[in-house]
């Protein structure tokens, strides 16, 4: 349950870790879903590249392009290992019509902010 501006939203998180371009998006990932949070590591170019692939599969399965979505660049504390620049995440978000945010669980930066972003997306 996520509360945003006094309204409670029932949220279910489905972890699709390990998705690749060959993994199908199925009904579990689309039917009855009102929004998506797609997460990549700023220290992993391959996880960033998967965001567009997974998003395209979701759009194909749902048959609509106006799906509320938040793109999250995780592990922002790993700046010395950064493979994905902030502006790349922002541009992808703009291209997909999605909100974008970077987070660090280690440093407690923007943790939980993506839940508010998906509620207003």
UniProtKB/TrEMBL annotation:
User: What NCBIfam families does this protein map onto?
Assistant: small_GTP
The record's listing under SUPFAM superfamilies reads:
P-loop containing nucleoside triphosphate hydrolases
Query: What does the UniProt entry say about where the protein is found?
Result: Cell membrane
Q: Which Gene3D superfamilies match?
A: P-loop containing nucleotide triphosphate hydrolases (3.40.50.300)
Q: Sorted alphabetically, which Pfam families does this protein's record hold?
A: Ras
One GO CC term, this protein: plasma membrane
Q: Which GO terms describe its biological process?
A: signal transduction
Alphabetical keyword list = GTP-binding, Nucleotide-binding
InterPro entries, A to Z: P-loop_NTPase (IPR027417), Small_GTP-bd (IPR005225), Small_GTPase (IPR001806), Small_GTPase_Ras-type (IPR020849)
Give the main localization category.
membrane
Membrane-crossing residue ranges in chain numbering: none
Q: What is the lineage of its organism?
A: Eukaryota, Fungi, Dikarya, Basidiomycota, Agaricomycotina
Q: Which organism is it from?
A: Asterophora parasitica
What is the membrane topology here?
Lipid-anchor
Identify a single GO molecular function assigned to this protein.
GTP binding
List the protein's name.
Answer: Uncharacterized protein
